[in-house]
Design brief:
about 325 residues; 16-stranded antiparallel barrel; Porin; about 5% helix; mainly beta
Length: about 325
Amino acid sequence: MSKPGRALALLALLALLAASAGGLRAQGTLFYLELQAVGAYSTASDAVELFSLMPDDVMQKPSLGFDFIHRFSNQSRDIGLLAVQARLAYDEEGEHALQPQLYNAYFRLKTKPVNIWLGHSRPALGLSSVMDSHALLLPAPAMLGYGFDRDCGVGLEKDLDWGGEAASLTTGSGMPLYFKGNYLAAARVFKGVLARDNYTVGLSLSYGHILETMGYTLVDPEPFAWSSAGLDATYVWRNLENRAEVLVGRRAGQGTLLVFLRSGLSFLEEGRLKVEVQPVLMENGGAWDYSLGSGLTYLLNADLAGRFMVYYDHERRDVRFAFQIYLYKLL
């Protein structure tokens, strides 16, 4: 099945799930317009490029899209939520200049024991499962090849007084949908609720046979073995925010390691100005690598943000200076 065909099939399944929930009524609908302009200067290519980091990455590219959220309830309680986020991006190095992207596409059913999601959402693995970074320039662990930002499958989530638990079974192919015997099973348990306790600490485990993809590009047609254990932590103190993750595992029979740190300091009213630094250390099969990033975010208003990033990639011997204007407006 082609990529557009897979996307349409997934949307049709989500629509069927929503429509088949008998006795439900709309609790609320949110519809956001998403617009971004992105460009970067690369010292390696000595050129201005219309993407932030790598050409095959889904984010960040010049794009126009929407974010649709629809809640359902009956007379006594909330039942579920349908979320669809999609965009049309300009891909200057792709086969076609315009690339359709399906980001969020899931239905989350709320039950007393657990919340269950089905569709295209976040696997329960590390910081990338809880850190909403789709609009940010600095890359999260999933963008560095450690997990998937979004993946097709099913997941369970349970909130507890002391934290929460989550598990997922997904295809292990990331943004595109492939069936080549690939899968990814992941689970995360965490202590602390960030909005209440100002900290959270999580432990993640994952195992599967996954595909090497970058954005919608299939790098290797054959799945490979993957297993990992990771510890992540987030701590907020006044206007200082720290996020860290250490992940160890096996990738195609060889050892792999990630040491990730992102620290941010907010200024001005409501933290409208934020400065971040992000050192990352990686090891794959005995080969060590690192990257250094620094970002600046300024919120012009509730809908519009400007971002700037300086990013050094040791493997590519490249320094990138990226700039983004991002609009996310409720219609």
